[in-house]
Amino acid sequence: MLRSTSGRLVNALKKSLVSPTRVCAINAVRRSHDGPQESDEEFDARYEAFFNRRDIDGWEIRKGMNDLCGMDLVPDPKIISAAMRACRRVNDYALAVRFIEACKEKCGDKVAEIYPYIIQEIKPTLTELGIDTPEELGYDKPELALETVYEQ
């Protein structure tokens, strides 16, 4: 039995060390980003429909939010409202507040212009769902912050 096992092992090693007689052809394929372009309205409708699904769960909500946060854009208020409703359906209040914070961060240096508009547009949804903004919760300033010695 040992002889048959060692014989198989030797045959397997010989086959792996011997160069194959046939040469495999390798085709170079160039992948480009020139595929079909999606309009802004189609993009908004796609994400709004994603968050409006009745069977969505917490993981899928986080995945959609993570995808949005990874893009070079600030989500439209329609998308944010749909995400707030999805968070409420799965009863995840903290996720809703964190997503509003993430949208504020996405505004970058235009936060004074864009963020008030977003809050103005989603405020009816927030009131309907009973969700407070990070500013209403006091999350916009640190709890235990001390004055720096450099600002005196």
Automatic annotation (TrEMBL):
Entry keyword Acyltransferase: no
Query: A Gene Ontology biological process annotation?
Result: mitochondrial electron transport, cytochrome c to oxygen
- What Gene3D superfamilies does its record include? Cytochrome c oxidase, subunit Va/VI
Molecular function GO terms recorded: metal ion binding
Query: What keywords were assigned to this record?
Result: Heme, Iron, Membrane, Metal-binding, Mitochondrion, Mitochondrion inner membrane, Phosphoprotein, Transit peptide, Ubl conjugation
GO cellular component terms attached to this protein's record: mitochondrial inner membrane; respiratory chain complex IV
Q: Where in the cell is it found?
A: Mitochondrion inner membrane
Q: Hey, which pathway is this one from?
A: Energy metabolism; oxidative phosphorylation
- Superkingdom of origin organism: Eukaryota
Instruction: Decide whether keyword Signal is in the record.
Output: no
Q: Pfam families from the xrefs?
A: COX5A
Membrane topology classification: Peripheral membrane protein
Quaternary state and interactors: Component of the cytochrome c oxidase (complex IV, CIV), a multisubunit enzyme composed of a catalytic core of 3 subunits and several supernumerary subunits. The complex exists as a monomer or a dimer and forms supercomplexes (SCs) in the inner mitochondrial membrane with ubiquinol-cytochrome c oxidoreductase (cytochrome b-c1 complex, complex III, CIII).
Record-stated family: Belongs to the cytochrome c oxidase subunit 5A family.
**What does this chain do?**
Component of the cytochrome c oxidase, the last enzyme in the mitochondrial electron transport chain which drives oxidative phosphorylation. The respiratory chain contains 3 multisubunit complexes succinate dehydrogenase (complex II, CII), ubiquinol-cytochrome c oxidoreductase (cytochrome b-c1 complex, complex III, CIII) and cytochrome c oxidase (complex IV, CIV), that cooperate to transfer electrons derived from NADH and succinate to molecular oxygen, creating an electrochemical gradient over the inner membrane that drives transmembrane transport and the ATP synthase.
Q: What is this protein called?
A: Cytochrome c oxidase subunit 5A, mitochondrial
- Provide the species name: Bicyclus anynana
Gene that this polypeptide is encoded by: LOC112048368
